[in-house]
Amino acid sequence: PDRERDGHPLATGDREILVRRGETRLALPGGGKAIPVLETELALAGEGTSRLIMARDLSEQERHNRELWVIANHDALTGLPNRSLLEERLAGECALAEKHGREVALLCLAIDRFKDINDAFGQGVGDSLLLDISKRIAASVPPKWTVARIGGVEYAGIVPSGADLGEDRKSTRL
């Protein structure tokens, strides 16, 4: 027998089984939050049509995927965006700037001689200092900016297209 899926018939003698699969959101009874589900529909054609619809809750899978995205796109120590997410956002900002005839700025910051701190006081103290530095940098720029840790002691910040540096006094502190 011919075995195809996703909207194509499966031949079983003189009857056909139509199989459809897809992701959707299912509203829970009582006005509850809609949950993501994988829905599979089997329809048996022939003398009368029979249908079987199955749904599998994908909430846990979605949560897991979000966690993986955060791990893949943020620095483990500081929680700041990493180089990968910085590059993605920079590409988006450059496309937006080109579309509107504006400019984008990329600011880079490296901390010199940080190895001396790790050597003298240990990596734990160095990590604590890096965490404090990261928080201060992120707090000193407008929320629309992206600040990323791109290396051990290297940071970069995207000044978005159309940003008015004089409008937000926070940006002058950086």
Number of helices: 5
Order of helices and strands: EEEEHHEHHEEH
Low-confidence stretches: 1-5
User: Rough shape?
Assistant: elongated
Q: If you compute it from the alpha carbons, what radius of gyration comes out, rounded to the nearest whole angstrom?
A: 26 Å
Mean pLDDT: 85
State the distance separating the first and last CA atoms: 69 Å
Biggest β-sheet description: 4 strands, antiparallel
Q: In terms of structural class, how would the helical and strand content be classed?
A: alpha+beta
- Beta-strand residue percentage: 25-35%
- Spatial strand arrangement across the major sheet: 1-2-3-4
| Total count of strands | 7
Helix-residue proportion = 25-40%
What does this protein look like?
- The chain starts with 8 loop residues before the first strand and ends with a helix.
- The chain has helices at residues 59-73, 83-100, 114-121, 123-139, 170-173, and strands at residues 9-12, 15-26, 35-45, 50-57, 105-110, 146-149, 154-159.
- The longest helix is centred in the middle third of the chain and has 18 residues, at 83-100.
- The chain is 36% helix and 29% strand.
- The relative contact order is 0.11.
- A four-stranded antiparallel β-sheet has the order 1-2-3-4, with helices on one face.
- A hairpin with a 2-residue loop joins strand 1 (9-12) and strand 2 (15-26).
Concise summary:
This protein has helices at residues 59-73, 83-100, 114-121, 123-139, 170-173; strands spanning 9-12, 15-26, 35-45, 50-57, 105-110, 146-149, 154-159. The protein has 174 residues and is of the alpha+beta class.
